[in-house]
Design goal:
This protein is α+β, with helices and mostly antiparallel strands and about 425 residues long. It has a domain at about 40-55 and about 275-415: Thiolase/Chalcone synthase (Peroxisomal Thiolase, Chain A, domain 1), CATH 3.40.47. Helix content is about 35%, strand content about 20%. It is built from 13 helices and 13 strands. The chain has helices at about 5-10, 15-20, 45-50, 70-80, 90-95, 135-160, 185-190, 210-225, 250-255, 310-325, 345-355, 365-375, 380-390, and strands at about 55-65, 70, 105, 170-175, 200-205, 230-235, 260-270, 275-285, 295-300, 300-305, 340, 395-405, 405-415. The strands form three sheets. A nine-stranded mixed beta sheet has the order 5-4-6-7-1-8-13-12-11, with helices on both faces. A two-stranded antiparallel ribbon has the order 2-3. Strands 9-10 form a two-stranded antiparallel ribbon. A hairpin with a 3-residue loop joins strand 12 and strand 13. The radius of gyration is 21 Å and the shape is globular. About 50% of the residues are buried. Keywords: Transferase. Belongs to the thiolase-like superfamily. Chalcone/stilbene synthases family. InterPro entries: Chalcone/stilbene_synt_C, Chalcone/stilbene_synt_N, Polyketide_synthase_type-III, Thiolase-like. GO terms for molecular function: acyltransferase activity, transferring groups other than amino-acyl groups.
């Protein structure tokens, strides 16, 4: 059922209002805990198949966030000033508390403490300022901030991988939260000292699964050239698109999104050499779901819509498609050791686990990143993968994202 602003207001209580939009709160019970059972290795056919394809590996995975952050409680108080009338204030507080987010980072924050003086980009709503900064003003801020955050993530990836900038042969950048030309891709040449002959591609405006699309572009280069060293960098500044609104779907977006960056190197390694290996990728555009999720340019920032029907569609469509894809690699859902699922919201995570007939703790890493960082759009799934690596879990891993289309993007990794 679509949820309108009128329905949100008519709900009997603040709890009912949040339930309409966000569903039942997700379970955060085992985030960060490695499974008790030993790693279950897949059948021999899968292991043998790995020897027939290039050993494309992901190295140097690194992340970066803006210096300052804000608690979700304080963010709700700040949001009240930005276009939400008194009649919505109680429901807004409930919505923020039940979003699964505890803290978020933003390039707009000037301090991590204090009250109204912590940011100056968004002025309080008024008759003269009903919708906030124009898109042009927001894009000016994007251009001034995106390079710094992207450079931090990319430089860290180079250092962690042990590769000098001169070794990079290809560059892939990913972003859906802003546009500029020359943009982040060209700026990284100067900031990192990349050779002028580096081939580049930009993956733009593909939404929360954009990093998986960037990974696919990088794989095309790395799998076909054993000398390729592909730097991938995803950066999003979603906090630039806060909407002065009482539209239910956009209120949810305001409660979830944040800023962050991630980067890594994709390259071929000798067969048998250990590392995070990229096995396969797949994409599925679910028929007749084009109106379920959107990300569109408006006069006052980019506007997100997310139908409450999305979790229901995931419940119906994900398992049959996932089962068929994994079967092509002699795998079953039970063979997957870890799941890096993009946290579009608590209901989407719950729907993913239930669709796959898995316990809810399989999305505990996703819940933990949602809680500590919010939804950073495209880099988020890489934050989750980094967390999985840090927990020393080994075995087949699926990265999963959902975006406009409605589209499912997935990647199969192993190490």
């Amino acid at each position: 059922m679509e949820v309108s602003s009128d329905q949100l207001l008519a709900a009997r209580s603040a709890s009912d209002q949040a339930e309409l939009v966000n569903g039942s709160p997700s379970l955060l019970k085992t985030a960060g805990q490695a499974p008790d059972q030993p790693v279950r290795r897949p059948q021999a056919a899968y292991e043998a198949s790995l020897l027939t394809q290039p050993n494309v590996t992901l190295a140097g995975l690194s992340t970066a966030v803006p210096e300052h952050s804000i608690s979700q409680i304080d963010a709700a108080q700040l949001a009240v000033q930005l276009g939400v009338t008194e009649k919505y204030r109680k429901s807004l507080d409930t919505l923020y508390r039940r979003s699964g987010v505890e803290r978020r980072h933003s390039v707009l924050l000037e301090t991590s403490s204090g009250e109204q003086d912590r940011q100056s980009f968004y002025s309080p709503a008024s008759p003269e300022n009903e919708r906030g900064p124009s898109t042009a003003v927001r894009m000016e801020r994007y251009e001034s901030e995106v390079v710094e955050l992207g450079t931090r993530a990319a430089a860290a990836a180079l250092e962690k991988s042990g590769l000098p900038a001169e070794a990079i042969t290809h560059l892939v950048t990913v972003s859906c939260s802003g546009f500029a030309a020359p943009g982040l891709d060209l700026a990284l040449f100067d900031r990192l000292g990349l050779p002028g002959g580096v081939e580049r591609a930009h993956v733009g405006f593909m939404g929360c699964h954009g990093a998986l699309n960037g990974l696919r572009v990088a794989r095309g280069w790395a799998a076909n050239d054993p000398t390729a060293k592909v730097l991938v960098c995803a950066v999003e500044l979603c906090s630039l698109h806060h909407q002065y609104t009482e539209n239910a779907q956009q209120l949810v977006a305001n409660a979830l999104f944040s800023d962050g960056a991630a980067a890594f190197i994709l390259q071929q390694s000798p067969q048998g050499e250990s590392g995070c290996r990229l096995i396969s990728q797949a994409s599925y555009v679910i028929p007749k779901t084009g109106d379920m999720m959107s990300w569109k340019i408006a006069d006052h920032g980019f506007q997100m819509t997310l139908s409450p029907k999305v979790p229901e569609i995931i419940m119906e469509e994900l398992k049959p498609w996932m089962t068929a894809w994994l079967a092509r690699h002699d795998l079953t859902i039970a063979d997957i050791q870890s799941w890096a699922v993009h946290p579009g919201g608590p209901r989407i995570l719950t729907a993913t686990a239930e669709s796959l007939d898995l316990p809810t703790d399989v999305v505990s890493h996703s819940e933990a990143i949602l809680a500590s960082h919010g939804n950073m759009s495209s880099p988020t799934v890489l934050f989750i993968l980094q967390r999985i690596q840090q927990m020393t879990e080994r075995g087949p891993t699926v990265m999963l994202g959902f975006g406009p289309g409605l589209t499912i993007e997935a990647a199969l990794l192993d190490w």
